Amino acid sequence: MSGRKDFLGQPAPENYVAGLGRGATGFTTRSDLGPAREGPSEEQIKEALAKRAAQLGTAAPTAYGAPEKKDDDDDDERFQDPENEVGLFASGTFDRDDDEADRIYQEVDEKMDKRRRARREAREEAEREEYERNNPKIQQQFADLKRALGSVTDEDWASIPEVGDLTGKNKRTKQNLRQRFYAIPDSVIAGARDAGQFDTSISTNGEETNGTNGINGASGANGADGVDGTMTNFADLGAARDKVLQVRLDQAAQGSNTESVSGTATNIDAKGYLTSLSKSELKAGEIPVGDVKRVRSLLESVIKTNPKHGPGWIAAARLEEFAGRTVAARNVIARGTENCPKSEDVWLESIRLNDNHNAKIIAANALKNNDRSTRLWIEAMKLENNPQAKKRVLRLAIDAVPQSVAIWKEAVNLEEDPNDAKLMLAKATEIIPLSVELWLALARLETPESAQAVLNKARKAVPTSHEIWVAAARLQEQMGAANMVGRVMERGVKALARESAMLKREEWINEAERCEDEGAVLTCVAIIKETLGWGLEEDDERKGVWKEDAKSSIGRGKYETARAIYAYSLRVFVQSRSLWLAAADLERNHGTRQALWDVLEKGTNACPNSEVLWMQLVKEKWQAGDMDAARHTLGTAFSRNPKNEDIWLAAVKLEADHGQTNQARTLLEQARLESGTSRVWVKSVAFERAWGTPDDALDLVNQGLQLYPSAPKLWMLKGQIYEALSKLPQAREAYNTGTRACPKSVPLWLLTARIEERQGASVRARSVLERARLAVPKQEELWLESVRLERRAGNLAAANTMMAQALQEAPTSGRLWAEKIMHLEARTQRKPRVLEAIKKVDKDPFLFVTAARLFWAERKLDKADTWFGKAIVEDADLGDTWAWYVKFLQEHGTAEKRVEAVSKCVMSEPKHGEVWQSVNKDPKNAGKGIEDILKICVGLVK
């Protein structure tokens, strides 16, 4: 119980007087023991009384309960009526002098008021105007709009839709907002599920009971009885939970291409969505009759309100057609043609709804009312079945609408004789000289020589048309005058610039791509050459813009346009290595080998100090089997870059891969003398180690460490050589010395810890890893090795503790999450952990592989394949991912998919991965290709 006293048992506050709010005062008597206590002061009493009165909403009373009277109380009844004289003036008498005095005073007041009235009214008017200007009324704000309503026509007034009654809708909306939703308990769901199921059970008292599961229902293996008699099916709940997790993983797979993988992301394929909509056609029987009637009443209101509104009649007719009432639809649209005789849309709808014979009559009536409607003439022509009748209709149409390009085109298309078509097009160009389309059609029908004359006439008639200049360039290409194509486009660009009719750079690129599609490659190149720099200043990011243009063209499959863009860009930026590499990638993926060689040779001449271009050229010739050309290229590269270690090492690899060990050793000696970098020494040691000369390798590594004592790879090679010779103490000493010389090298720390563990000193290995984590904090590989050390020692509790610390240090490490999920979690908890990890780690290939392995284990092969594909797309340089994927395909894939996966792996040339690097760096596998390394890794991943 609390030690606090109750309210009545607590002491009174200081200066407390009972009944003070009711006007009581404190007092003391002589009979009181102790010194008398003074009562509250007058100010305290007034303050308490005022506070009490404020709470009650009355006037503040005095200490004796009577309210105070104010002398200037305006509410006194004596001052309400000036004719009611009471009090002092009750017995007063008034005479003429008093009336005269009152009159004089009144006149004086009126005169003084008249003198100040003008200024007062002027001041009040100014104040009123200022207030109205700052706070305008609603009618003033819309005054200009109300004046504009005077110009609204009767048709516009009639087309204003009726205002619907939204009161019911708003009421329903508010009711829905006030609704409350509660989670339904499992017991209610289970009761609803079992409501229609009857069974026979024996109660505890031996009576047989028919009905649903109740209090007497027996508990089974799937659940236990609840208080309300329901039985929880834990198997169903587990299956539902797995299904929910699977759906969330699928959503994460779909949403991984968005900004974040939250597990609830949703991707909508706009193209597929529209396609699905087009496939789901509504039928009249699927629409409720009430909806049809309601829409019919609305449309009837529209056409009655505004009978001159053509779209209303069309909508009403289509509604009847949709409802299956074709005759009613024809009648409605017939009324529409009577009310809207000048609306070609209404006539076209009427023609569509009627059969051919009636449609011809309707078309004739339509043309009587709309003799200049191109669409009606063309529709009337289509109704004819005889070509001669079609031509007759089109001749009438040309007489009625001679300026219609569409009618002339239809008439030309009906001509079977090219000469007649040319004559008609010649006449059309005379009547419509501004139609570029007709000029180009005429040029296509003429011979090349005559086509030039036609295009010259067209150019003079329409000097702002770029299509005519492009057609002229294509004509020159067709005639075989390749040197004239560029000249024509150059003249065309200058002429269009004079006329201020130049297109934007993006539009010119689209024109070039269109020419490429139609086979005019030279015209495509000429367009790019003359227009790619249009609108770009020299200080703009032209190189980046052009690279993006080329990538966009490649994405659309327009490789010739991309080549032309790269060619123009390289003429401007000759020494841009990135542009040369991009052009080489284009030729490698979409060109010929000779074209690739030409691009790389030009790139090496333009950028002689770029070892990347030299290496690519050597590699291409090497892979083509031309060893002499590869050696010659390396010799040229040596002469241009005598100190470049990449070229030296490429030459060494070339000779070593073809068995020329002595030549490779000689090249390494020369490289150590001329270049002499730590990387050259590392490659020299690795070469001797790979070819089985450990003594020479030890000698070289000791020489290299004297020159580069802080090179971690040299210390690692020294320790690995001793390990290969089974000299573990010397290897351990090499590793320890290396960690002191290179305390930031994570691989050195890992090798040191592993050799201690291999010698059975797990405690020392643990100490090494602790020192490593202090030297290199927040390094996921060190934490991962610490967790694996505890797991290999059988200490799972310590491994879990270490993993918790690791995830606090590196919460976005996919490798740590994958280790935790696959080795430290129960099988039933792996899927939830994968989902949690995907939410925290964005696009990690290790997690994708983990998800794929979980689906693989559950025999959900399609989903596993999808996740493997996502992992490869995310990081194709990770060799372990390729190994897992190929292993999966070996068990559940087809031979074609396995071959495709291996070929893609060879093309990607992966270089990273825990298992991949251990196999690739092993001296036993020296000289093996990527495919051989992949086969070994497939057998090691687990």
Automatic annotation (TrEMBL):
Tell me what this protein is called: Putative Pre-mRNA-splicing factor prp1
UniProt-listed GO biological process terms = spliceosomal tri-snRNP complex assembly
Q: Where is the composition biased (Basic and acidic residues)?
A: 39-50
User: What organism is this sequence from?
Assistant: Viridothelium virens
Has keyword Flavoprotein? no
An annotated GO cellular component of this protein is: catalytic step 2 spliceosome
Does the keyword Iron feature in the UniProt annotation? no
Q: Which residues form the PRP1 splicing factor N-terminal domain?
A: 12-169
Source superkingdom: Eukaryota
| Segments of skewed composition (Acidic residues) | 71-84
**Keyword entries, A-Z:** Coiled coil, mRNA processing, mRNA splicing, Nucleus, Repeat
* Composition bias, Low complexity: 204-222
Top-level taxonomy: Eukaryota, Fungi, Dikarya, Ascomycota, Pezizomycotina
Q: Which Pfam families match?
A: PRP1_N, TPR_16, TPR_19
Q: Which SUPFAM superfamilies match?
A: TPR-like
User: What binding partners and quaternary form does the record give?
Assistant: Associated with the spliceosome.
Q: Coiled-coil regions in this chain?
A: 101-148
Q: Where is this region: Disordered?
A: 1-101, 202-222
Q: Where in the cell is it found?
A: Nucleus
